[in-house]
Specification:
alpha+beta; Aminopeptidase; about 375 residues; single chain; twelve-stranded mixed sheet
Length: about 375
């Protein structure tokens, strides 16, 4: 005889009756009862999302540009380069896209092409296309699909710049990611106090000295001079360049598809006609300026403070153009009061705790990493 279960409450009463009447049976099959109960409570209300992977911009469905890092234009930025393989994971509710996650597969060696020499990188929270969507469930579907897509193609998956220490926690744990505590530094440009007033006393002195010695900032607008600028940046001490230095195609694509479209800028600092610093900035509508890369010839021109002047000038430009935030993104380990994080905090920004999530696609190594870090 089949027992109908009209509600979760009725099912709970049914389980209690079984446990009281047949305790031995219930003990042996408690996991079975738990799973049935969980599926009854959650499964009825859970939505199933169809997730697909796209490797070409032309194949994408129409997507709203909500997030700077997760949109169709990112294919133009990372395309046509042997270093990067861009891909987009899109979640659908029926035929309607509800979320999208952009990722890149990057080669870290020009000679070897195997899985061991490839990494998958994702940055920032994915955008959700709609109100009151179950973000946790959708993100779980996206990250699970991405792991299955790239686990045989790359050695490591890294997700950073989430801006929230607990976002996606369940999805990462379910897919055996481990985390490292990190900090994000962001300057608000909406305060009554101007950027200049937010600087530390030492920063103000350094910028004043730089301006008195004749440093100026300009926007890079000539595509013909891009190879020369790239070579100049490449010759700069790599230790002073934030994050891994990208290939030339990265700069060319960014200039053609972002700078020309008003979605970003390349700014340069000059001293006596020579370029001694610069930054690459990305714009998320009129909301946020992302400092993607910055550099300065601080060793050769130590008393000119080129890096400090470059960053201040970029922040001032963002403030004057009405942006709300200037985001340095992930900058260092949590509680580390030295190095890059200490350097950037002297520009008056606020630090926020976040996490970097990692997953080695080699089971034994990933197991030990989880044991060590978590």
């Amino acid at each position: 005889m089949r027992t109908n279960i009209p509600s979760s409450t009725g099912y709970q009463n049914f389980l209690c009756h079984i446990i009281l009447c047949f305790p031995d049976f219930a003990q042996n099959y408690k996991n079975f009862f738990y799973v049935c109960h969980y599926e009854t409570i959650v499964g009825k209300n859970a939505m199933k999302y169809n997730v697909k992977t796209f490797y070409h911009k032309e194949e994408l469905p129409p997507l709203e540009e909500v997030n700077f890092f997760h949109n169709a234009s990112a294919f133009d930025w990372y395309g046509n380069s042997p270093t990067y393989t861009p891909l987009m994971v899109v979640a659908f509710d029926g035929e309607k896209p509800v979320a999208a996650m952009f990722a890149i597969i990057m080669r870290i060696n020009r000679i070897f092409k195997g899985k061991l020499f490839k990494r998958c990188f994702i940055t920032q929270q994915p955008p959700f296309f709609g109100q009151e969507l179950p973000g946790i469930d959708i993100f779980n579907a996206l990250i699970s699909h991405l792991v299955n897509e790239v686990k045989h193609k790359v050695f490591l998956i890294r997700y950073d710049n989430l801006g929230n220490a607990i976002f996606g926690y369940k999805g990462f744990r379910d897919n055996q990611f481990y985390s490292v505590k990190w900090i994000n530094i962001r300057n608000s440009l909406q305060r009554k106090r101007k950027i200049w007033d937010q600087l530390s006393a030492s920063r103000k002195n350094q910028i004043n000295k730089a301006m008195k010695r004749g440093l100026t900032m300009e926007e890079f607008v000539s595509e013909e001079n891009l190879p020369e600028i790239y070579k100049l940046i490449q010759d700069t001490n790599n230790k002073k360049i934030s994050r891994r230095f990208p290939p030339y195609q990265y700069f060319e694509n960014f200039f053609c598809h972002y700078v020309k479209e008003g979605k970003g800028k390349i700014v340069l600092t000059r001293f006596q006609g020579k370029i001694i610093g610069g930054a690459i900035l990305g714009f998320e509508k009129k909301s946020t300026v992302y400092c993607l890369y910055y550099w300065g010839k601080a060793k050769r021109h130590k008393i000119l403070y080129p890096t400090i002047f470059t960053l201040y000038s970029a922040m001032k430009m963002a403030e004057e153009q009405g942006f709300h935030y200037f985001d340095f993104m992930d900058v260092g380990f949590l509680h580390k009061r030295a190095g890059r994080s200490h350097f950037l905090l002297q520009f008056g920004g606020k630090q926020r705790a976040t996490r970097r999530w990692y997953r080695f696609n080699w089971g034994l190594l990933n197991f030990f990493a989880n044991q060590i870090y978590d």
